Amino acid sequence: MNDAGVDIINRETVYRGFFRVDKFRLRHRLYAGGWTTPMEREIFERGRAVGVLLYDPAADAVVLVEQFRLAPHLVGLPAWQAEIVAGIVSPGDDADEAVARREAREEAGIIDLGALLPIHRFMPSSGGSSELVSLYCGHVDSARAGGHHGLPEEHEDTKVLVLRYRAAMQRMRSGAITNAATIIALYWLAANRVRLKREWREHAATVKVEPRE
Q1: CA dihedral of residues 14, 20, 21, 22 (deg, nearest 10)
Q2: How far, in Å, CA of 27 to CA of 188, rounded?
Q3: By CB distance 3.0 to 4.6 Å, which of 83, 122, 154, 198 could disulfide with 179?
Q4: pLDDT tens digits, 107-141
Q5: What domains appear along the chain, each with residue ranges and CATH number?
Q6: Is residue 89 within 8 Å of 48, Cβ to Cβ?
């Protein structure tokens, strides 16, 4: 199947707030041939987002942020969630990498984020939301990470968590981490950690570090 097999008959915005919900009337082609009868679907228009796993290869540590989330609270999970740094791509934003660096600064106080490697793009809920997340892994010095951050005007209140790699993986495997982007990023790190430590170590050895005054 391809996009030619989708016929959007009508689209209507039924809710507009912090996010938007659009109602569609559509039909699509069937595998057996022909078309479905017209159907209605509501889509949560979340847009694009960027997430970045902050990793310190020298300390073998990850930097996460903990913050309040209403949705987990409503389904019986802890309201304060440990997650990777992430943010929404707004109209007028630069490349995804710039958004990743901005969010690392705003949510975790990281002002000197190093190399960024793309991990994957994924849709958290393709059955009902348009959200598309671009994941990255960013080189960071975890010794400089800590404290409380966030933008008050956006009701952000984040606490920085610096966890050794094995502690972070144990927390995830125990079920304490339930955020999809964080789980995907940590499993990617598990598969690429040895290579990443070697490559970033070799890169650091070729970079001349100017002494601080």
Answers
A1: 70
A2: 37
A3: 83
A4: 999 988 999 999 999 999 999 999 999 999 999 99
A5: 3-44 (no CATH), 48-206 (3.90.79.10)
A6: yes
Contact 64, 163 (CB under 8 A): yes
User: Can you tell me which residue has the tokens 């740094």?
Assistant: 85
Q: Is 181 left (phi over 0), alpha (psi -120 to 50) or beta?
A: alpha
Q: Is 154 a catalytic residue?
A: yes
Tokens of 102: 């901005």
Q: List, for residues 51-65, the tens digit of each pLDDT value.
A: 999 999 999 999 999
Task: Please tell me the pTM assigned to this model.
Answer: 0.87
Per-residue model confidence as pLDDT tens digits over 174-200:
999 999 999 999 999 999 999 999 988
Quote the tokens at residue 114.
């190093």
What separation, in Å, do the N-terminal and C-terminal C-alpha atoms of the chain show?
61
Annotated active-site residue in 40, 45, 107, 154 = 154
